[in-house]
Amino acid sequence: MCDAYFFGYGSLVNTLTHGYDPVFRATARNWRRAWRYTPDRSVAYLTAIRAPGHSIDGLIAPVPAEGWATLDLREAAYDRLPAGHEVHHEAQASDIAIYAIDPARLHRPDDDHPVLMSYLDVVLQGYLRVFGEAGAQDFIDTTDGWDAPILDDRSDPVYPRAQSLTRDERIFVRDALRALDCKVLVR
Fold this sequence. Notes:
Blueprint: E1 4-8, E2 24-36, E3 45-63, H1 68-74, E4 79-82, E5 87-89, E6 96-100, E7 115-116, H2 117-141, E8 143-144, E9 150-152, H3 167-180, E10 184-186
Parallel strand pairs: 1-6, 2-8, 7-9, 9-10
Antiparallel strand pairs: 1-3, 2-3, 2-5, 4-6
């Protein structure tokens, strides 16, 4: 039996945060990303939202049957949804899941539920390393909710899979947040 795959569109694009291999670039059609929070977590994070006519780039990777419990725990606030018919890729995979939160449970981020800079760093680092600057900019352009406040936790990361960024990656993040006129909260 072939392994099923996940479609990652946020932190799962950063291969430093997981051991699933091999990874393949992929595009999920009829989806967009958005910064949202739920009662399950005190901070905002990315979710995929159905959006006919839109698409998002990401990665797919195989998950052995015994690995789904671990991945589901990592993505605990999300529902695992079948998306093989919506994900286009070069791999030999048809059983593909996307993690998304029930739209009825989503709320817009606010000062009490900000985006963590350490999480945003991981996501943008993944896009920069896999898709380059143009791909990271496309991530920004295909993600809603940039009016969300961002909590600068870099000096003491809250996100459990935080990564160190290179100087160039930090500059990209800084410049992107300035261009978006994001509100950055100091811890």
